[in-house]
Amino acid sequence: MIQLADARRIIAAAEKKAAEIGQPMNIAVADAGGNLVAHVRMDNAWIGSIDISIKKAWTSRAFDITTKDLAANSQSGDQFFGIHASNDGKVMIFAGGIPLKKDGKVVGGIGVSGGSGEQDHAVAEAGTAAF
């Protein structure tokens, strides 16, 4: 189970990485049920990315896959094509969402938005490593 203390540690590590690369981010952490545990909008991060970061955390938990991998498999002709239209449009197919695992079991997700897909994913990876 993801506790608030876990979410704070994950977010702190992600914020550190975002600061290192010079890109303010929105960072969200969801629990095993996909429910938001904590969210941070760094100074000057895009307000439009608040919703995206929360939905990336939810998506990575809902499907137990990185949003980067989900995106790669949701292009026209691929196995998950059209998945972004499911769940009332809540599914995000941009890089930056990663499932959080404990003892090999998915127990939550992190979602990061505010930069390029590569930047979002790198910041999410930093947060995941802190878990």
From TrEMBL:
It comes from Edaphobacter modestus. SUPFAM superfamilies: GlcG-like (SSF143744). This is Uncharacterized protein GlcG (DUF336 family). InterPro entries: GlcG_carb_metab_protein (IPR052517), PduO/GlcC-like (IPR005624), PduO/GlcC-like_sf (IPR038084). Pfam families: HbpS-like.
